[in-house]
Protein: ROK family transcriptional regulator
Organism: Streptomyces gilvifuscus
Amino acid sequence: MRPTPRVETFPANTPAASQIFTTVLSQGPLTRLEVARRTALSPAAVTKAVKPLIEAGYLVEDAADEVRPALGRPANPVRVDGGRALFLGVKVTGDEIIGVLTDLCCRTRGARRVPLADRAPKPVLAAIADLVGELLVQTAELGVGVHGLGVAVSGDVDRAEGVVRYSPFLNWHDVPLAELAAMTVGLPVTVDNDVRALTVAEQWFGAGVGLSDFAVVTVGAGIGCGLVVHGRVVAGAHGVAGEIGHVTVDPAGPPCHCGNRGCVEAIAGEAAIVRQVREATGIEVRDATEAVTLAHRGVPGVREVYARAGEAIGRGIATVANLLGPERVIISGEGLAAYDLFAEQIRDTLTAAAFGSAAQCDVQTRPLPFEEWARGAAATAIQSFITPDDPHPSR
Amino acid sequence: MRPTPRVETFPANTPAASQIFTTVLSQGPLTRLEVARRTALSPAAVTKAVKPLIEAGYLVEDAADEVRPALGRPANPVRVDGGRALFLGVKVTGDEIIGVLTDLCCRTRGARRVPLADRAPKPVLAAIADLVGELLVQTAELGVGVHGLGVAVSGDVDRAEGVVRYSPFLNWHDVPLAELAAMTVGLPVTVDNDVRALTVAEQWFGAGVGLSDFAVVTVGAGIGCGLVVHGRVVAGAHGVAGEIGHVTVDPAGPPCHCGNRGCVEAIAGEAAIVRQVREATGIEVRDATEAVTLAHRGVPGVREVYARAGEAIGRGIATVANLLGPERVIISGEGLAAYDLFAEQIRDTLTAAAFGSAAQCDVQTRPLPFEEWARGAAATAIQSFITPDDPHPSR
């Protein structure tokens, strides 16, 4: 494990205490009795763990929320005081860096973007430092400490070691980003794959709260997938997991940058859509925005490209459903701008290709701008603060 | 929850005690200190949990295994006394019922097969009763109690409720098999999907011991998959999981019984292989054994059928690797009789279609006869005995 600067130590220093705090954080306000029920811990253990957390100001007892049972003494619900601590989250894309300032409940308190002229580690670190500096100006006004920075990067990221093993978009190999960023900004830094970071935000603060098995599918430049199984984000024994974009849909299909043919991403990724729209129309569309515009104008052949993309995504989701049987699939990403163009095909293909009751999984769409990905990065920093010894905490 | 007859209550009645016993069962003999390390529990908690288990005869302290540290008192390893309790396991196929008698360590003490003339629930239950009766004769000689029966059936099985929701091979719908079998044989009964039962045996007693993420892929009449993620067998929120046989390999491929085209099973299942060998050779082969014989004789066109089957299986395994990144994939099933005919294609396709480091997963083959599936059923009965309140226990 790499050394990280420590700003303040969180007072929940046992797995049970972390679990109790996490439960209140994502599902509260809750009475101690309800926390005990949901964590399968004893009420005495909950009371014991809650005490130092209240003393340190991380939990508050809310008299306004008081529940008065017919018998016995009133059971005061406890909730997290979001304003007790601040966190930073950064998402690195190929063109810009998006940063947010959040509170302990992962509510966004500020956001900034800075363009990225050069994708090499040094200029990226400099841009992160600039952006963090801008966001920290705000925190001075709030008078609350910043307890960590999360950085989300696409590709193969080893969160435990803090290393970006390989990021195709940035063309990075084995960059010890957590250590470099920690030295630059003077905060503890958590580095994670961007789709996994988004999944953490959904699991703790979004549409995955209370679910033990769900998937987040992101549609955009790439097609990604974050998986939560048995209450924990799947990281893969060798760093690779959730690669729904490289599920083969058609072995005779178009070539993919991964070296295979007919991957979901080779049919439904933004570059693939732009290419197919050019081929179908002869119009030199530059990007996905233009392709969507052509589709909405009814230019012949464009809707068919999106229909095929929807089928490919639906088949990828069906594969996830057939293998893992998730309770819910959350579809998100910047590609959702085109969602009306392929929503029907995604649902129809999923229904047709899902095996038996796997088709029962609930499909939701959540339009998430890049700031939400940065918020995902902040969520990983919150996780690291609460459960410093567990690189992949559960709910 | 359905009521089940109770033969004897296991003295580990907390989750921690179950976890301690399970660790010794699958990884022992171990010293108490080593158990504490592996379970992340305190040495005091381990000592406390071990005591009643030794008193009841489930654990024994082995002086022969004594480890003498240079300093301090000797640390006696504890191990499970396999002979302390017996279990029965039954695998139901379309043609016969295979049963085994095992000890608490899931070592086979006896095996029997009875043919099945009729697949309706009543005659199947009668056949199970006959087979159990034959196996119980043996137990009388051993003078040890039988503590449970496990029944493994292919299809959608709800283990918690003890119901076979849908089994295509048997043409069963919503059969409360656990309750019916418990009334018939007078033992607590655990019912599970056959591939999941085999996965439990691998997890607790086989090639999956000590791994938190692995897959068992079974090749034969059907192509199945049992998945262990974060130390627990994946059951799926709606009962379906591990359906690798219905991953689409080629949307233009042959029709599958599930209603889609080009599923792994529609290309590599035994019926599909027999059909393709007939088409390629014009020879009226009756079953997979004849098809393998033709391939080994070098009849033109037959090896190509197996090569395509191997590619389909390899692509299915690559999909599992890309989504979950398991440490190990264990390939098994009666179809392994043909393994030399498609092993190369499985490995080559997996290597080509796995994304990045996902290809690093260790692939093992384990030829498992039907008796091993029955042993898997016995393993689920052992699980239920040790952790009666958890329908899907972890290691």
